[in-house]
Specification:
- The protein is α+β, with helices and mostly antiparallel strands.
- The protein has one domain.
- The chain contains 5 helices and 4 strands, in the order ααααβββαβ.
- A hairpin with a 2-residue loop joins strand 1 and strand 2.
- Helix 1 crosses helix 3, helix 1 crosses helix 4 and helix 3 packs antiparallel against helix 4.
- The radius of gyration is 14 Å and the shape is globular.
- It starts with a helix and ends in a 5-residue tail after the last strand.
Length: 124
């Protein structure tokens, strides 16, 4: 799982760097798998452990996209939230992922941001 997370963080970093936001944000919105294959804690551990081992800066958007993608593939309806705030005249953004009403990654800072969008936008 650690190698998968590292590979996906690498891909997410590239996607975020070269694609427009509307295209890049789709990286995590894969279909929800039919059966639960992993535990939430294991996926989040893998994403955070891989982030610490990669030689470039990984921020909330890459972590959120990868966590969402891995959780959805593992059978959990992970939703990515995109929020914004202004501080000292500058605009800041943050990404966090929830399953149900529980934030599983990025939630510690989420309370300070106004939610702007969720992905995927609506479940079928």
């Amino acid at each position: 799982m650690l190698l998968t997370a590292a590979a996906l963080l690498s891909r997410a970093s590239l996607v975020v760097a070269v694609l427009p936001f509307r295209s890049a944000i789709r990286f995590g919105s894969v279909p929800v798998g039919r059966t639960k294959l992993s535990e939430v804690e294991d996926v989040i551990w893998a994403v955070e452990a891989a982030r610490r081992r990669l030689p470039w800066r990984i921020v909330c958007i890459q972590k959120g996209l990868v966590a969402q993608r891995m959780l959805r593939a593992a059978g959990m309806n992970a939703i990515l939230h995109y929020g914004m705030k202004t501080e000292d005249g500058s605009l800041e953004a943050h990404v966090w992922v929830t399953i149900g009403k529980e934030a599983v990654i990025g939630g510690d800072e989420a309370h300070a941001f106004v939610p702007v969008a969720t992905y995927p936008r609506a479940e079928a």
